[in-house]
DNA sequence: GAGCACTGC
């Protein structure tokens, strides 16, 4: 974005002038009630004022005659309670009708649960009986209109289907009105009119993600100039699923009026007015549209998760908002962080919407526990032995694959020892790197008379939800990735979770019914030892990518950029230094031509630079394959415990001639391509199919970006020197020289490292290498290593290396047989 | 001769 946005003074004037009209119009409408709703949660409201009266009402409700007289005198919550009962009866009869007409109904457990939830949520429904009819009418109209577009595009629809459609639509309207958010619709719209930025605290199950964009659309926020309402999600599946749900509710085809946009898949069209997308995708849109002119509203959902992308979005969007007073911002967060968000957005008001969830009983351990793995197993077996079988499954949170496998073994062994004295207990491991076929196991329904125990990493905290979990066992730990800007190393560390995380984990037990959570740490420890929330990603990650992106949207002064939680200055400086070395920034910190080309690629800057440089060496086809393989990380090879030797041998096939890991990855990709992307081939070579498919998608994307930056796709598969020089053009800061003791030392900064044992060169120990990344585990290990000739460093990066840096003064002191590869 | 939390572009 051009940083030459209006000065603060002129912005203020502009804002005041343009908002004045609206202000005058709406001031009258603003009621005390609206203000109250924004401060007090509905649950508190109910609890404090009307508890007693409600109880009495329940006793009286049998007598209809009496009730109708009484209902006129009732307060709002009482009316709701009454209508709730009425609506349940209506809904049940409607459901039966639906079934009678033979409507196609998926019996997916998720949907069944949703419907159940919706029914439960009827408590909050329909405070305004008369208006309901109005709404239905208005809606029928709208649906007729939209339905015609369905008929247009789908000529097979016959009269019967149309009738069916109508039943379904009216049920959808009912469902929508049943969501806890519905009674707040008017107040919410009012608040959006009154304020530019609104923090929304929407508890789980409130319906905020699906309903708010629709409300705004109905209220006319999409009418002006065909502008869109954008809603970001931290995960791809969420964006897709919500978009599908909303398009269904609105009776339009997915990808038309309602669409989603995620990497590799843009399911939107010119008609699209409600757009769901991943937060990273919106961030990328800043590159082509710095003022987000095509949006009238941006909603950042799940902001409390504080992903890297949301944090950057905050800074950028705050700036856009001050330049565009008519752009509305909605930030949805969890209760704990709401005030922090409000402070950041200049005291934006907080709007609370209650959710619907089941109560969860929380148990803490009495005394501190030293062996949480053992304690988790014991607790699980205890639950299994003492609680009724058909009552619900168990979910245990552990830190990683190894722990999961050990726990699985112990549980199985102990259950076997107990024999028939106890009901069957099925162990289901789940972690991101588990092959897809095995992951599916957790979604299979539990057989009659048995119980499931799911052993999961953090993946079960937010990314996937498992039905029928009644018991959660929380060990209180997880693995987090930490980047050390000083050494440039990354490491995975086992760390205590935050309070927010602990509550999230506990909530996983209350999805289908009341649940219980057993925490393997004391309450004292929860109160005093755990942080309130996890350290945001932006403070513990390599920022090279972020800095390049910010530079290319025109942010010049990064150290003073308005971060909600600023990253360590050292990490920013390190990133700037790297970008300068790569030639993407000039002396004044401005983006160069090379930098502009690099920012087109959704990769780490070193990988992007490698691609840009491959133009010169005429091997872009090979380099994008390597970049794709490198960027999917270390989950390419599958190494089951019982076949480690075979797996290692398969891997070594790609290393013939000690070509180095980069070229080996290229060979893997090309061999797979030759088999026409065969799944069987992957199994035979102990390679993860999922990873390879991802690599193919990334490669395809990179290929299309080549065109955009004007690089020809040229292939030169046999010229290894050209390929290696391209790699070095991006990774020259990661070059290292062999020491006497068999370790390596980086050429510029004194950093030692060792070739990782999984590398094809770990036995070869070439004198000079370039590595992809440095990880700290038991030692500092260089992962993905390729041999280089020192002369190339001076040739490729003369601004960085002089001859004296690469003079091989120590060659004579080398032990015999080392460093001669 | 080792160790792979989770996302996203």
UniProtKB/TrEMBL annotation:
Gene3D superfamilies: 1.20.120.1080, P-loop containing nucleotide triphosphate hydrolases. Belongs to the DEAD box helicase family. DEAH subfamily. PRP2 sub-subfamily. The keyword Nucleotide-binding applies. It is an enzyme of class 3 (hydrolase). Residues 372-554 form the Helicase C-terminal domain. It catalyses: ATP + H2O = ADP + phosphate + H(+). One of its GO terms (biological process) is mRNA processing. The lineage of its organism: Eukaryota, Viridiplantae, Streptophyta, Embryophyta, Tracheophyta. One of its GO terms (molecular function) is RNA helicase activity. This is RNA helicase.
């Amino acid at each position: 974005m051009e940083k030459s946005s209006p000065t603060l003074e002129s912005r203020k004037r502009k804002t005041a002038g343009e908002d004045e009209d609206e202000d005058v119009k709406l001031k009258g409408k603003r009621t005390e009630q609206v203000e109250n709703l924004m401060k007090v949660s509905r649950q508190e409201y109910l609890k404090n004022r009307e508890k007693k009266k409600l109880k009495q009402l329940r006793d009286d409700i049998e007598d209809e005659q009496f009730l109708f007289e009484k209902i006129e005198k009732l307060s709002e919550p009482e009316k709701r309670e009454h209508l709730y009962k009425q609506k349940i009866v209506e809904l049940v009869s409607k459901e039966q009708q639906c079934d009678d007409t033979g409507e196609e109904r998926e019996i997916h457990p998720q949907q069944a649960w949703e419907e159940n939830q919706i029914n439960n949520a009827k408590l909050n429904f329909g405070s305004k009986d008369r208006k309901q009819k109005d709404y239905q009418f208005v809606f029928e109209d709208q649906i007729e209109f939209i339905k015609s577009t369905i008929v247009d595009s789908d000529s097979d629809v016959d009269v019967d289907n149309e009738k069916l459609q109508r039943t379904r639509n009216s049920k959808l309207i009912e469902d929508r009105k049943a969501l806890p958010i519905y009674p707040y619709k008017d107040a919410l719209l009012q608040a959006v009119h009154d304020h530019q930025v609104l923090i929304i605290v929407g508890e789980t199950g409130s319906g905020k993600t699906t309903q708010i964009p629709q409300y705004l659309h109905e209220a006319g926020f999409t009418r002006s100039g065909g502008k869109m309402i954008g809603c970001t999600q931290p995960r791809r599946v969420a964006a897709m699923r919500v978009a599908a749900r909303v398009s269904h509710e609105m009776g339009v085809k997915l990808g038309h009026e309602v669409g989603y946009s995620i990497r590799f898949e843009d399911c939107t069209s010119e008609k699209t007015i409600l757009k769901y997308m991943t937060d990273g995708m919106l961030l990328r849109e800043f590159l082509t549209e710095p003022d987000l002119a095509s949006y009238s509203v941006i909603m950042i959902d799940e902001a409390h998760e504080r992903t890297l992308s949301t944090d950057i979005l905050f800074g950028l969007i705050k700036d856009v908002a001050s330049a565009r007073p008519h752009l509305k911002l909605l930030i949805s967060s969890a209760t704990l962080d709401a005030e922090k968000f409000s402070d950041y957005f200049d005291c934006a008001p907080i709007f609370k919407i209650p959710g619907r969830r089941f109560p969860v009983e929380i148990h803490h351990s009495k005394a501190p526990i030293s062996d949480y793995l053992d304690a988790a197993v014991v607790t699980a077996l205890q639950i299994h032995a003492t609680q009724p079988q058909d009552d619900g499954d168990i979910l245990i949170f552990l830190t990683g694959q190894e722990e999961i496998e050990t726990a699985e073994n112990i549980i199985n062994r102990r259950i076997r020892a107990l024999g028939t004295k106890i009901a069957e207990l099925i162990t289901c491991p789940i972690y991101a790197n588990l092959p897809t076929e095995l992951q599916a196991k957790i979604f299979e329904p539990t057989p009659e008379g048995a119980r499931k125990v799911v052993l999961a990493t953090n993946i079960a905290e937010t990314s996937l939800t498992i039905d029928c979990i009644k018991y959660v066992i929380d060990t209180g730990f997880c693995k987090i990735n930490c980047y050390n800007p000083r050494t440039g190393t990354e490491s995975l560390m086992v760390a205590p979770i935050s309070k927010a995380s602990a509550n999230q984990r506990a909530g996983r037990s209350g999805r289908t019914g009341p649940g219980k959570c057993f925490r393997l740490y004391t309450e004292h420890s929860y109160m005093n030892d755990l942080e309130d929330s996890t350290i945001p990603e932006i403070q513990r990650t390599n920022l090279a990518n972020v800095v390049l992106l910010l530079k290319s949207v025109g942010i010049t002064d990064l150290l003073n950029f308005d971060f909600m939680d600023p990253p360590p200055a050292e990490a920013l400086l390190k990133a700037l230094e790297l970008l300068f070395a790569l030639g993407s920034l000039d002396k004044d910190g401005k983006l160069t031509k090379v930098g502009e080309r690099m920012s087109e690629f959704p990769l780490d800057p070193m990988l992007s630079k490698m691609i840009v440089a491959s133009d010169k060496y005429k091997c872009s086809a090979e380099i994008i394959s390597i970049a794709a393989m490198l960027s999917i990380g270390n989950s390419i090879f599958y190494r089951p415990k019982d076949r480690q030797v075979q797996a290692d041998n398969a891997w070594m096939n790609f290393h013939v001639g000690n070509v180095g890991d980069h070229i080996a990855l290229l060979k893997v990709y090309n061999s797979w391509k030759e088999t026409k992307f065969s799944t069987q081939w992957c199994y035979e070579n102990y390679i993860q199919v999922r990873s390879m498919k991802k690599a193919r998608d990334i490669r395809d994307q990179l290929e299309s970006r080549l065109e955009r930056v004007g690089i020809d796709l040229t292939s030169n598969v046999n010229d290894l020197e050209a390929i290696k020089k391209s790699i070095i053009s991006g990774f020259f800061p990661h070059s290292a020289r062999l020491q006497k003791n068999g370790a390596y030392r980086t050429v510029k900064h004194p950093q030692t490292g060792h070739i990782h044992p999984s590398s094809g060169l770990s036995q070869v120990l070439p004198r000079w290498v370039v590595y992809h990344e440095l990880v700290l585990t038991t030692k500092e290990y260089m992962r993905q290593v390729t041999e280089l000739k020192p002369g190339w460093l001076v040739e490729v990066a003369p601004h960085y290396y002089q001859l004296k840096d690469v003079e091989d003064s120590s060659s004579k002191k080398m032990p015999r047989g080392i460093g001669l590869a």
